[in-house]
Automatic annotation (TrEMBL):
It comes from Streptomyces ovatisporus. Keywords: Oxidoreductase. GO terms for molecular function: oxidoreductase activity. SUPFAM superfamilies: FAD/NAD(P)-binding domain (SSF51905). PANTHER family: GLYCINE OXIDASE, SARCOSINE DEHYDROGENASE-RELATED. Residues 4-318 form the FAD dependent oxidoreductase domain. Pfam families: DAO. InterPro entries: FAD-dep_OxRdtase, FAD/NAD-bd_sf. This is NAD(P)/FAD-dependent oxidoreductase. Its EC number is 1.-.-.-.
Amino acid sequence: MSSDLMVVGAGIVGASVAYHAAQAGAVVTLVDAGRPGAGVTADSFAWIGRGPSSVRTGPAAALRATATEEYRRLEAELPGLPVTWSGSLSWGAVDGAPEAGPGQEIVDAATVATLEPTLRQPPEWAVWAPGDGAVDPVGVTERLVEGARAHGARVRPDTPVTAVRRDAAGRVAGVETAAGPLPGATVVLAAGVATAALGAPLGIRVPVGPSPATLFQFRAPAGLVRTVVNNRDFDLRQVAANRLLAAADSPERTLAAVRSTFRGAENVELLGTRVGVRPMPADGEPIVGPVADVPGLYVAVLHSAVTLAPAVGRLVARELVDGAVEPALAGCRLDRF
């Protein structure tokens, strides 16, 4: 790989790769069809934490385990990063006894009531993760792009990439865009669901498809919800003094559940719905690493992009700029398919 990098996709993953690579001394160009963070990154619930027990195994387990630590590192490097460390409360989402993982604890109804005082009926138990938080995903992306620029990166928004260019020897030579060719000795495809289409003409199959994710925004009283709440009905958090954000399936059922779950929520009203097309690799795990059949090509596409972006960006930069082989990415390579 060469440290002359062309990063395709200025969502949160591409922005993180660009920032960390530029910080490490690479010559970086970040190109996107729109504005940084304006695509599927904007459609994330953006809960930052280790997550439930169901995602504590698999190739990305080591990355998830460091998610909050990586965000705190990034927060120190980029002052003003829009992160809220509220903690999270989870209950009733699965049958059976609760299971607490690292950084989590089982709390009783009295403790739940102190953490979420407007709950009508605090559950008998919940999993409390005090180190969890949430971010403004577009704000984080914009801050990463600012950081990349501060380290010399060039940013080309509103420039759709149409193809990856190769030289006569088959090595990557940059990209074709609607505005003409852009040179680059290494191309990082961090373009979400579009990554598959960009890889196909090169004979590369990147098994990633669209996964719809629905978010609802509600008008609500200030302080109605204090933590990130996760239960059978919704993932829910307060994103502004009078705004709630929910990740769920049905606007009617979610609105009814919010009103019945919290005191003072009788007048909560639905303001809008967003459906994002998030990238989903075939096995649900990140696809990150060099493409052996196309020298100079590197892929970085993942479903839990907002959660894992700081870690993935740092590790990808180490592989591209320093020539390291990162063990935490060993199970995420494209050649597993």
